[in-house]
Amino acid sequence: MGHKWAFCLLTGLLDAIFPPVCVLCGSRLSSGGITACKDCWAKAGEIVGPLCNKCGTPILSQDGGGCDFTYLCGICRQREWHFDIARAAYIFDGPVKDAIHLMKYQGHFLMGRWLGNKMAQIIAEEDYYKKKDKTHCMIIPVPLSPERLRQREFNQSAILASSVGRVLDLPVYSGLLERLNGDRPQVGLTTKERWSNVRGRFLVSSPERVINKRIILVDDVITTGATVNECARTLKQKGASAVDVWTLARAAQRFSL
Ligand SMILES: [Zn+2]
Ligand SMILES: [Zn+2]
After folding, report:
1. What is d(CA 157, CA 180) in angstroms, rounded to the nearest whole number?
2. How many Å lie between the centroid of ligand 2 and the Cα of residue 85?
3. Is residue 51 assigned to a domain?
4. What tens digit of pLDDT does each residue of 8-23 get?
5. Rounded to whole angstroms, what are the CA distances from 40 to 86, 156, 201, 255?
């Protein structure tokens, strides 16, 4: 009880000295917490069904998908993915894009936790997850290479993954999947270069720990799917029984094959 009072008093004091403001527009927030205001976040493009059953791309009505839950998009009809299913919470645009930049390039740690909660709550509401067998399930973030981790000081996907783990009540293993030094960033590469750039660049530090495990792989943004597909290939090669990909956002513009 005493602790709770002290905490409330401290939070109240901090709010009075540093009034909480929206990180995107700077307007005052009515309650504490370092997040975006309702007006800004109302413009976030939350992904709603119907979706491609495999990669989670939203299906436009003229695409002929309708409400057929076995529907596959044009890319998934042609490509064999190593992951089982991919889902994203938002379209990578507007306030979501701004928020991801704050988290990633300005080290906005609390923003990352807030986004991770949102992501987990949205994707966990999907039928696919409600029906999923959660035994032997674990969460693994897409890793950064040691080089890049040193430059950036933290892995944004690991922050998201820890929030997802808390919401879903599942264990998070951040060091299990590793990324080798020396790859170029995917940003700015063509689709073809993106696929060859990530090939063979991941390894599992303790392979015995992924055998027969159902893995939820967490990343911030899915663009071509090349990175998460390579992670899934590596994990399955070491005996993982399933790999689902959860990302906070997916690129608004799809890349061709
Ligand atoms: Zn705002
Ligand atoms: Zn698809």
Report:
1. 16
2. 9
3. no
4. 777 666 666 667 888 8
5. 27, 22, 38, 28
In which domain, by residue range, is 149 found? Answer: 81-251
Ligand nearest to the CA of 25: 1
Residues with CB under 5 A from ligand 2 (ion): 52, 54-55, 57, 73, 76
pTM of the predicted model, to two decimals? 0.88
CATH number where 223 lies: 3.40.50.2020
Does residue 64 belong to any structural domain of this protein? no
- Ligand closest to Cα of 78 equals 2
Our count of domains for the chain comes to 2
Helix axes 156-168, 109-124, angle to 10 degrees: 50
Domain-located, residue 85: yes
Residues, CB within 5 angstroms of ligand 1 (ion): 22, 24-25, 37, 40
What separation in Å is there between the alpha carbon of 223 and the centre of ligand 2? Answer: 12
> Tell me: the pLDDT tens digits for 67-118?
556 788 889 999 999 999 999 999 999 999 999 999 988 888 888 999 999 9
